[in-house]
Amino acid sequence: MECAQCLCLASRQAARSITRAFDRKLRPHGIRATQFSALIQLSLRGALTIGALAKFLGVERTTLTRNLELLAVKGWVKIEVGDDARSRVVSITGKGKAAVTAAVGAWRQAQGAALAKIGSSGAKAIRALAQVEMQ
């Protein structure tokens, strides 16, 4: 019975629920929560290698590469060869910045709704866990 209270399962369910809520708010802007997060990081940090961006986002490089290709098709990011022929550098375009600017109000609504559900201590705990690699 103690496994019925599994934190791993509960956290995955919570993450999916939160993502769906953000996706619903962002949908009218033609952007998904994962795409918004990538664009925000590029906007804040400037051009990054795909590997560095994947690390900031906490996703696998191959998954991010597929998602970035979709953003490139929309003209929201530019992907170029880095210093090393094997590396790729991604940057947000003017069109990508405009997409983020248009969607930030919807993001704020989703953020506010999530904070109202989990409270400031819940948000603080989530942020702390996001920074720690469990042993």
Your description of this structure?
This protein has 135 residues and is mostly helical. It has a domain at 31-119: Arc Repressor Mutant, subunit A (Orthogonal Bundle). Helix content is 67%, strand content 9%. The protein is built from five helices and three strands. The chain has helices at 7-26, 33-45, 50-57, 61-73, 94-130, and strands at residues 48-49, 77-81, 88-92. A three-stranded antiparallel sheet has the order 1-3-2. Strand 2 (77-81) and strand 3 (88-92) form a beta hairpin. Helix 1 runs antiparallel to helix 5 and helix 2 packs across helix 5 (94-130). The model has no long low-confidence stretch (mean pLDDT 93).
Task: State the total count of DSSP E strands.
Answer: 3
Shape: globular
- Summed over residues and divided by their number, the pLDDT gives a mean of 93
Radius of gyration: 16 Å
Q: Strand content of the residues, in percent?
A: 5-15%
Q: For this structure, what is the CATH class of the domain at 31-119?
A: Mainly Alpha
CATH superfamily of the domain at 31-119: Winged helix-like DNA-binding domain superfamily/Winged helix DNA-binding domain
Gist of the model:
It contains 5 helices and 3 strands, in the order ααβααββα. By secondary structure, the protein is mainly alpha-helical. Strands 1-3-2 form a 3-stranded antiparallel sheet.
Notable characteristics:
135 residues, mainly alpha, Arc Repressor Mutant, subunit A, three-stranded antiparallel β-sheet
